[in-house]
Amino acid sequence: MSILPAGEIRKTLLDDRLQTAIYGSTGRLVGKRRESIDDPVAAEFEAWRTHANAIKRHTIENLDYYLEELERNIVKRGGKVVWCKDAEEAAEFVRRLCREKGVRRIVKSKSMTTEEVELNHEVEKDNIDVVETDLGEYILQLAKEKPYHIVAPALHKTRYDVADIFTKTLGVERETVIEKQTMIARRVLREKFLTADLGITGANFLVAGSGAVVVVENEGNARLSSSAPRIQIAFAGMEKLIPRAQDLAVFLKILGRSATGQPLTVYTSFLSGPRRPGEIDGPEEFYLVLLDNGRTKVLQDPAKRQALYCIRCGACLNHCPVYRKIGGHNYPWVYSGPIGAILSPQFHGVTRDPWLPHASSLCGACGEVCPVKIEIPKILLELRRDIAEAKEREGEDRVQQLAFKAWAFVMTHPKLWSLALTGAPYTMPEAENGWIRSVPGFMKIGPLAGWLSQRDLPAPAPKSFRRLWKERQEGRQ
Amino acid sequence: MSKRVSLFVTCLVDQLFPKAGLAMADVLERAGYEVEFLEDQTCCGQPAFNSGYWGEARQVANHFLEVFEHTSGPIVVASGSCTSMISHHYGDIYRDDPAVLERVHRLESRVFEFSRFLLDVAGADEFGARFEHTVTYHDSCHALRELGVKHGPRRLLSKVRGLTLKEMDAAEECCGFGGTFSVKFDEVSGGMARTKIDSILRTGADYVCSIDSSCLMQLQGALLRGGHSVRTIHLAEVLASR
Amino acid sequence: MSRDLILSSIRSSLGRRAGQPVPARPPVLLKIPEVPLARRIGQFCEALGKLNGKSLVAKNLEEARDYVAGLVQGRRAIASNAPFLGECGITSIPGVETGFTGRMALRERCATYDIGITSASFALAETGTLVMLSSAEEPRLVSLLPPVHIAVVPTSKLLTGLDELLTLLPDPAGHTSGMAFITGPSRTADIEQFLVRGVHGPGEIHVVLV
Q1: Beta strand residue intervals within chain C, DSSP E
Q2: pLDDT value at residue A74
Q3: Scanning every residue of chain A, which has its alpha carbon at the shortest distance from the alpha carbon of B10?
């Protein structure tokens, strides 16, 4: 069971530079999204969201059917489907394939699913050179860090950080100009693309009716990873399915806009199987790794399985006031932000990180912007209930439980409540202008201490509303 | 609907910010309504619900239903989050109990957040108010996203004589209260309040206004701690000002 | 076997049986606007221009050829095997090599030459997008490896947008192992959200509509 990483969170909150980076970057993405969904597409955008939600609902509710259809079509196009029930199986498949095919170098484009599986770490055990090719991921790989954000992984790094990382790991002369840094990465990675035996990509969508994998990107590294090496593996969570290629019309329109404010990303690849007879380039072998790793568990709960509709746009992260303060590294798993808060407990069980669903003010900004209309705040509330029930069963957190029982007792006995209202002013220290700055040491515990650490506390009004109301009414007679 | 309304002042107003409740009553009377306050009212149950204690929330919700279902007119609520608790989440609490659900549906159609009541039911937006200050409006999250309250309060404020309304850039960002979140994650909550305050200060306003006392409590507490002179004020108090 | 375990687990969660058909699914949402060619051309150029891509509307094949020749000017270019490029006379521009059918030979040139020249199966006006279907005529790497990409496309291939493309091509997998949409030059903003073009794909793109 993990404990709230209070120390790490505090460090993040006190790091002014990091705060500016997180708030500024996410703020820019918020603005870009807003621009791209303004008129003239504003009304249509809402229709797209509704439609996308309906398609995802239908697909997830009939997931077995579409998985089989996908498999049939991938095989029809000459590819192979590898069903992996967990991370170990997925990693084992890749390692085995590399051994069989003599793979010495792998190029990877961005895939959160491979992060879930810790693929790089596993594959490196066999002394294979596995290289992240998305610029942000590459920088993090060199720095040995995890991604900070689903779409903008190196959000927290400055050009000076990047200069340090490149000098240290690539042995190049220190360079702080961003264009030049990008060209260094381009040069190094080009060589990797052209000498790699295997390319691994993620998948934004799996098209059942076509037997295809759809990958969207801006850099070109996913196209290169899927076109240059002789073997391609696409890694995807099983929930990425959509029924028909024509459904992409809606999904592509909402994905780019929600993520970065782009009507379309620079590149969209629609890949189905190894290269066909007559085609000159493209992989000779094509594998789709279909990952479960807990998704079947999430499916079990009809109210919460909508979390699987996620198309990984990152909009919820960008709009979440909590994410914008604590950043991506303070979440316990690879998925951060609001989507992480509802996926992690469903994958790992609510008691593993019981603080996570509570790390939200329930402001609802996430649900408001989710392109596939996942009811994130509703799921958070359901998870909080699951946690309270689990704690009750395990006899934990008895103080909080008893406190709410007592509170409910008072609130269902109006005379007690009235009494509390009358008595409350006497329990608190004198308040200047009605606000308390501090309380005596023995009172500085629990919620009171938490409140006072950040703000002044309102003193109970000398006369409650109901008393003043009585006086007001009596005064009129 | 009858010209008699029942007030649900909310536990927070009852205990900490009674002036907002009195102001609400004043404005409703000015709009031509007879106002009653049922003494047996306590709370909507939201604190327990948001913390996952749905059993305890249900007990308190039961009490709310008992107190209010025998009224016949509108029930006007001094807070957006309490209103949406009743209209959006009582359905969750009672989803396994169709009989009670029926009672909830009958009641909730009469439950209104204060600004909504004034504009949509009373059909009034002007109350002879005067408030000679610069005010910026904070969009309380539940009211904004669950009730769709956005333009109403701004319209009401625009009719107040002498009032200058200034829009802050982060109007829709959460103040950081979130109930027990404010104390369980106090540092994050405080950080959120300070970000909001930066936005408020950039407007140069003297007052920040909203329809939810919980937000105002969070912001005022943080404003005072930060040594700022900006004050918070409930919409009702602005509309009741002469 | 994992496949069976996963499928049976899914079925028990969803209350479905093996082989059970699916209920009616939401219909596809495709809307094709009525846009005359002249406006489509304008839309395409405007959309591409916003992304820093360059476009030229050529009145005839000669003008197209001249423009491309001006860009090639002393540099080495690899052209795909698209017949339209031959029709335009682009394959006879000095410095342009074409006719490669061997994977390694083609790749070697794509990796070292300055310019890649292709046609395209379609172009999309709304977004300034090129639609490339991998084939014997259009290999993948020509539009990807060289730092400059020039595409010469007949206006007859210019569609209104994605909806029209997917209406015409409901299953791209039936035609190719790799369809790519190209919308402007390669770009990244991964470092400090600062925009840089030409990370891995071409940083410079020219589309000649004929």
Answers
A1: 54-57, 77-79, 96-97, 115-118, 122-124, 129-133, 148-153, 158-159, 178-182, 187-188, 196-197, 204-209
A2: 98
A3: A465
| Sheet strand arrangement including B111-113 | B34-37, B4-8, B75-77, B111-113
B1 pLDDT above the threshold of 60 = no
Q: How far is A203 from A114, CA to CA, in rounded Å? A: 11
User: Can you give the C-alpha Rg of chain C in angstroms?
Assistant: 21
| pLDDT < 70: residue spans in chain A | 1
Count of residues in chain C: 210
* Alpha-carbon span A301 to A303, nearest angstrom: 6
CB contact under 8 A, A186 and C199: yes
Q: What is the DSSP letter of A432?
A: B
pTM of the model: 0.96
How much is the pLDDT for A17? 92
Which of B68, B22, B79 shows the shortest CA–CA distance to B41? B68
* pLDDT score of C165: 98
What is the per-residue pLDDT for A442? 86
pLDDT at A43 (0 to 100): 87
Does the beta carbon of A363 lie under 8 angstroms from any beta carbon of chain B? yes
- For C175-184, the pLDDT digits (tens) are 999 999 999 9
Contact B146, B109 (CB under 8 A): no
**Per-residue model confidence as pLDDT tens digits over B83-102:** 999 999 999 999 999 999 99
B2 pLDDT above the threshold of 80: no
Q: For residue B186, what are its two tokens?
A: 């106090």
CATH 3.40.50.10420, domain C35-209, yes or no: yes
Q: 10 Å Cβ neighbour count for A473?
A: 13
Question: How confident is the model over B118-168, as pLDDT tens digits?
Answer: 999 999 999 999 999 999 999 999 999 999 999 999 999 999 999 999 999
Query: Is the CB of A296 less than 8 angstroms away from the CB of C107?
Result: no
Quote the DSSP letter at residue B31. T
Residue A20's Cβ-side half-sphere holds a number of Cα atoms within 13 Å equal to 4
List, in order of start, the domains of chain B with CATH numbers: 3-121 (3.40.50), 134-240 (3.40.50)
Give the residue extent of every domain in chain C.
35-209
pLDDT at C150 over 80: yes
**Are B146 and A364 within 8 A, CB to CB?**
yes
- Decide if the complex's ipTM is over 0.90: yes
- Most C CBs within 10 Å, among A30, A189, A218, to test the C interface: A218
Please report the pLDDT score of residue A428 as a whole number.
87
Q: How far apart are CA A191 and CA A208, in angstroms?
A: 34
Which of A100, A451, A450 lies closest to B16 in space, CA to CA?
Answer: A451
SS3 call for A78 = coil
DSSP assignment of B85-136 equals IIIIIHHHHTTT-HHHHHHHHHHHTTEEEHHHIIIIIS-------B--SEEE
| CA B77 to the chain's CA centroid | 7
Of C9, C127, C189, which is closest to A264 when you measure between CB atoms?
C127
